[in-house]
Amino acid sequence: MVMASDFYITSQAANQLSLFDSDAKEIKKTFEISAAPVMIAIDKLGNAIYLSHPEQGKISVFDLTSHQLISEIRTGGQPFAMVLDSQKPQMFVSDWSRNTVLVINTTSKQLVDLLAVGESPAGIAIDSVGRKVFVANRESNSLMVLNADTPDLHATIETGERPYAVAFNPHNGHVYVACVHDDSLTVIDSKTYQKIADLKPGRAPYGITVSDNGEQFYVVNQNDNTLVEFDAESLEITKTIRTDKMPESVVLSSNQQQAYVTNWFSNSLSVIDLQQAKQIQSIPLKDGPRSISSAQ
Q1: In degrees, to the nearest 5, what angle opens at C-alpha 74 toward C-alphas 142 and 63?
Q2: What value, to the nearest 5°, has the Cα angle with vertex 260 and ends 67 and 31?
Q3: What pLDDT is stored for residue 4 in this prediction?
Q4: Which of 49, 59, 62, 144 is nearest to 93 (CA)?
Q5: Which of the chain's termini has less CB crowding within 10 Å, N or C?
Q6: Are the C-beta atoms of 52 and 39 separated by less than 8 Å?
Q7: Coiled-coil regions in this chain (predicted)?
């Protein structure tokens, strides 16, 4: 049985999906997956796990309970980041080789639309209530805002260089964009489409997550091997915490007291106590850990 304390982790080089028990602080199961899984999206209502395979031009779909493969969506191109729409049975997927966002019907498991965006779209996020999709265009140095219901473009906003990850804070309407090449993080107002700030989180900022109450957000820096905590109101760094080598992605525990960080070079998962502001455990993972997502 999958519990609220469980998290899924992809290992791209090892072709595996791991199930991490955050209560026991151990990997309780691993699953062999077809070539090079990268990103994860968990559809709790649809009882499904979606894994992107950019090298294979497909998205695989697994049953969240049995972990059996139930479908393969042959998208073509290079499907990368995925975000589910909580208001409709659809999922948006960045495709960085075709400069598009794919729209997947999560009921039929079919590709139903392709939306043109900028060059090499990477990170993607959604405001399901405001009906907006945010896409970071890595080679265009921009964030595009799309309508989640119609194939309309709301805005194109300049970011730092080589934007990668995107996160939306529903509490203040801010969008955070990690820009790898110039070590910056662009903060954008999702209502006015104005840039609020260019922050300096560290060297090569990568993954981002937002706390449940919206009061903090967290960024991992690949070239510094750190996790930084920002105050969402002041936009000041409040904590800097060491991780293992080349952190990729970050999520928070259900009680918001711990952070879990996948580390590409160390093949590990950093368990971080946010109150103590330090790593308290390093858990070995299979080769090439990329993304981590809560099972619940």
Answers
A1: 100
A2: 20
A3: 64
A4: 59
A5: N
A6: yes
A7: none
Inform me whether the pLDDT recorded for 2 exceeds 80. Answer: no
SS3 category, 250? strand
- The letter for the amino acid at 233 is E
Tokens 């160390």 label which residue?
Answer: 266
183 near 204, Cβ under 8 Å?
Answer: yes
Asked if 28 and 20 touch (Cβ cutoff 8 Å), the reply is: yes
Q: Which residues contact 16 (CB under 8 A, 6 or more apart)?
A: 10, 30, 31, 32, 33, 37, 286
Let me know how long the chain is. 296
272, 279 contact by CB (below 8 A): yes
Q: How far apart are CA 296 and CA 289, in angstroms?
A: 20
What pLDDT, on the 0 to 100 scale, is given for residue 79?
98
**Nearest 10 degrees: Cα torsion 104, 72, 67, 262:** -70
Alpha-carbon distance 2 to 21, whole Å? 9
pLDDT tier for residue 34 given thresholds of 50, 70 and 90: confident
**225-272: per-residue pLDDT in tens?**
999 999 999 999 999 999 999 999 999 999 999 999 999 999 999 999
State if pTM tops 0.90: yes
For the CA atoms of the chain, what is the radius of gyration?
A: 17
pLDDT of residue 3: 66
What is the average pLDDT score of the chain?
97
d(CA 163, CA 123): 8
